[in-house]
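question for whoever is on the cluster today: can someone run the full assembly for these? two chains, 956 residues total. i dont have access anymore since they changed the login thing
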Amino acid sequence: MTPESSIVLAAVVLPFLVAGLTPLLYRALGERVGYAGAAVAALCFGLLATQYGTEGIVEVAWIPSLEIALQFYVDGWGLLFASLASGIGTLIFLYSPSYMHGETGLARFYTALLAFMGSIVGVALAANLIAIFVFWELTSLCSFVLIGHHTGDEDSQYAARMAMFVTVGGGLFLLVGFLLLSIVAGDVLGPAAAFDLTAMLENPDAMESGLRDRGFFLPVLGLLAIGAGTKSAQVPVHFWLPNAMAAPTPVSAFLHSATMVKVGVYFLGRVRPLLVGVEWLLLFATVGLATMTVCALLAVAATDIKELLAYSTASHLGLMVAGFGFTSIYGAETGVFHLLNHALFKAALFLIAGIVAHEAGSRKLSELGGLRRDLPITAAMTVVVALSMGGIPPFNGFYSKELLFEAALEASHYHDIGALGWIYPAVAVFGSIFTVLYSLRFLSLFFGERPEELGEIHRPAIPLVAAPAVLTVLAAVVSVDPELAVRAAVQSGVDATAVDPHEMHVGLPTEYSTPVGMSAVAIVGGLVAYPFYDRLHTGIQTIPRAVPPASPSWWYGSLVDVLPRAGAGLAARVHNGLLRTYATWTLAATAAFALAGFAATGMISATGLGFEIPIAVALVLVVAVAAGLAVATSETHVAGVLTLSILGFMVAIFYILASAPDLALTQLVVETLVLLIFLLVIEEIPEFDESLGRTARDAVLSVAVGATVFVTVLVATDSRPGGTTDVARYYATRAVPEGGGTNIVNVTLVDFRGFDTLGELAVVALAAISILTLIVMRSSRGIEPGTESGPETEATDGGDDE
Amino acid sequence: MTTVIMRTTARVIVPIILVVAVTLFVEGHNLPGGGFIGGVLTTTAFAVIYLAFGLDFLERGVLGRDVEPGKEPSRDRVVVAYRRLFEYGLAIAVLSGLVPLLFDRPFLTQTFVEFEGVPIYDHVELASAVAFDLGVYCVVVGGLLTILSVVGAE
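^ ran it for u. tokens below:
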């Protein structure tokens, strides 16, 4: 069955549309606008549900000339993720009005939340690389707004900036990876498939050999891994995710369970058939297991319930990444099934954490306990979801973790990976022990002694309990009958992410096998270690204090500290208010970049220059050189300006001799104007500074700029004096019939390249406006005229525009 | 600069420069010239006036208005006029580019018509690009004169 294009498009567009209207709705509905959001999310979910079981491409032309279309590919995997986002989104929207009651900035909050959901649905379904990238970065932007919801709060702003910095930065790596992919796809599969991920996934072998032939395989793998790893908070950039808990709890629940942090995992599953191999295994299994273990340890060290859950999210994301990293079918099953399970139990856990924080007024683990008497329903729900998080049978997290153990054991059968064959399973078990530990710790909020200082605890409002209850019921259903979930959603996801899909079975183990033994070790290990929880907790906490680089955000923190200082230092050097400094840096940088570019692309080669110069041209050039020397040695400004214009007029005559009257005319006119302007301002120019160092620097700079211009002309004109290029012939033959003018230069300027000319007009206008602004600003601030840079800027403008 | 020689010369050459500038602009499509060169040449004529007669001459001597002393240069009526000129120029250029969209052609598409047997000129060609070129001319004149007068006033 093929998907209905209007329904798929509606499901993606609707959240954005309503997001745009939310400020208006907020005026009409007030805080109840959250329920309108819930209706939209539910509608999205319903629309997606009608497409259940379909597979195919939906396409809308976007930038046809670049083969970029708004392509959506609907299949089991995309639908699973999109339905999770919209389904959990519905519950979050239902939960938010009660939780966010009385907060400010709600219109912005719901706008961003809706756009966030729409972007996630977009990423899940998009099949065009450019579309994926746009939605991908949109999720980062929306999360920036959401995490920074408390705009007055320093921590909130810091966390928002950090999330933005890490995820958008990672997105740029992804973009480069996409471009490399599209280059290869354009060559291998034809230009129409350049950005079409579906086409690439249909021809994985051709793509892989194409990537390997060009040496792009490892770069693409690495770039996509950075993109996905930053988004999904893998080690070593796992620090942003716990900070993101500065967001209001509904956002945390959404962000950590169903949406942005899973986008990376989802995307890995998507491209898995394309890139899977031994490099893939080594990279993602290692990164994933490292993340799983490190973050599980950090979760044990956490002191705040949301922090615990946040690190546990990162740890579980590591589990999914490791799952997809293993090349066997079990790997794909782990990734897909755990994505579903984690979304169910983690969303519920965050919402429960929100209830606890909201009703008990504290999020400190040490201040909470014995809440089951005050919050009995919540406690019952927590039993299901927390044990599920810990991977305790028969709860749903157990099944997918069992699959990870299976995949880790299988890894050495598929590839010769030496000692890693037993390190992977060992690390998986080690990490799982801590998973059990922190899951039990979270559960202990509701059991044991109730601290004295805990005040009276209110019953939570019905919507607050309803949302996690729905999720808990779903988690319980999956726990009781995992085969149901497999048949309904997981199998089709596995089909899309596995190389050799076959029927998947999960269930409680009936006899002993190695994975069962591993699970037993993890659970028993966790239970045995639990009495020593406090000692472990403080033990892990002391590590970063003793070794600062071991602390999660140490690298980010030092980088963020160093950059502004380095930036300020650089600005003081480059941007010191003296025109000559600006000119030096700009010219030197331009020359260096241009020359380096030519050198890197191998454009500089020994070229034979024909020195057949007519006498007239030679004479003009001799005069020009003499004038150039005279400029350099002139004693006064007036003499310098006059000799400089001799040079300019000689260039104009050279143009005439080279039969370019238009250029000559422009040169003459501009030269005259520049001369006049120089005469106008000559008294304002400060005296020469004759220090030896500065003269030497200027000499080096002049030679570099001259060399750059020379080489550029040589390369750009293909060093063929007298010969005509294709471009030149094109304009020469088309000018009269198409432009109706015999002056090719002007016809080119206004008819063929009108857009360039328009750009230049904008430059002239901008220059005028900026000079106007500069002077207005100066007079309004009352600064005395001193180092004025107007005329020089203007003179360069005139030159640049032709 | 405001010597008698300079002023006398300026009186003679400024009209010539302006006429040449207009000629260059009109002929641009078939002979060397065009909006940019015409614009720069026009600016040159104004620069000569400024050099020979001072910055206030345009307002006092040509337009016959009183100059308000101590006014910010950017608020000067002449400067405002120049600013408007390049703003309109940019608008003309963009609008002339938008017209083809009405005929379902890409942005900035240009065309031309030829008339035969017109009195005196005999053969006249009208190119739509003239409108765009006029925009170029206005932006160049307006932009450069804004810069010139504002900086000159300092």
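summary bc i know u wont read the tokens: DSSP finds 32 helices and two strands in chain A. Residues 783-802 of chain A have pLDDT under 50 and may be disordered.
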